Amino acid sequence: MRGVDLCDQLRECYLVGRPCKKWWRYFLWFYINLCIVDAYIIQRESRGGTPPTGFNGKQFTQRHFRVRLAQQLIGDYQGARGMERAARKRHADSPIEYGHRLERMSERSRRCRNCTNKGLRHESVFGCKICNVHLCRGGCFSEFHK
């Protein structure tokens, strides 16, 4: 019983996922948590209590293991905003060449992204459809694409 109780204790410390009523989702998150705990136990037992290389803390806990696992799984993923910034930098030399132009985005006015970055509050129905941002009709379009 000690092994099962210990596994349940480790599994309940840092849960991944959300509680749900659908049985298959519950099992999915249960098995993901179980795999993470098993990997932690295998690493702990194979190292004999010594922390992995590159760890300078006192004790390598399950929390440290989960943080490192998440960092390794995420890698250098930038997300949607990071890709948007990279695309903007890539064709910042001449935005008109790549189809960027000031167009009417929607009937509803939204806050200008360029003015918001400056700490101002201006709203506009115009913007750049490629970058998917609302911009003022003034100089915000060219300033944003520099």
TrEMBL record:
<protein>
    <recommendedName>
        <fullName>PiggyBac transposable element-derived protein 4</fullName>
    </recommendedName>
</protein>
